[in-house]
Amino acid sequence: MKTIKHQIEIECSQEKLFDITQDYTNRLAWDPYLTEAYLLNGAEYADLGVCSYCKNRFGSVMVSRYISFSKPHVAAVTMVRGPLMLKRFSGAWNVKRLSEARSLLVFTYSFDLKGGFIGRLFLPVAVYVFLKDMKNRLLAIKRYLEPVTV
After folding, report:
1. pLDDT (tens digit, 0 to 9) for every residue of the chain, 150 residues total?
2. Which of 11, 81, 104, 141 could form a disulfide with 63 if both were Cys (CB 3.0 to 4.6 A apart)?
3. Which residue in 24, 3, 33, 14 sits closest to 136, CA to CA?
4. Is there a contact between 66 and 47 (Cβ–Cβ < 8 Å)?
């Protein structure tokens, strides 16, 4: 599996930052990658075993299940159903406390592409696209939590 990660420091407590990353009722307020995001099967809060539905701006849908949930440190999901190009996918949000009001948010993806040789040829493109979206999402949550005042 290919693993990529990106991180960003944000002026926000670890607890608040973790909660915002896992709050599906407000996810679209800051996440530019998604056009739909909600929890499935009547779940009100993200937690171990809970499934979520996410649709990105290109129309791709992924249903994922939480495989790790340790508030306020880490939340990780694995793909249950996803885009045709993905054989396997998992993602994690790790939130590290730097101070009372500052945190480090680390976003990690691990994935395999379908298609054998063709999938391997497409891998550098997939890494580029995923990393670009990952960086944009992290900058977006930083802007959401650290609004510029002039």
Report:
1. 899 999 999 999 999 999 999 999 999 999 999 999 999 999 999 999 999 999 999 999 999 999 999 999 999 999 999 998 999 999 999 999 999 999 999 999 999 999 888 888 999 999 999 999 999 999 999 999 997 655
2. 81
3. 33
4. yes
Q: Rounded to whole angstroms, how far apart are CA atoms 149 and 43?
A: 36
Please identify which residue in the block is written with the tokens 């670890």: 14
Total residues found in the chain within this entry: 150
What pLDDT does residue 147 have?
75
Name the pTM for this structure.
0.92
What structural domains and CATH numbers belong to the chain? 2-145 (3.30.530.20)
For the chain, give the DSSP string. -EEEEEEEEESS-HHHHHHHHT-TTSHHHH-TTEEEEEESTT--S--TT-EEEEEETTS-EEEEEEEEEETTTEEEEEEEE--TTEEEEEEEEEEEEEETTEEEEEEEEEEEESSTHHHHHHHHHHHHHHHHHHHHHHHHHHHHHS----
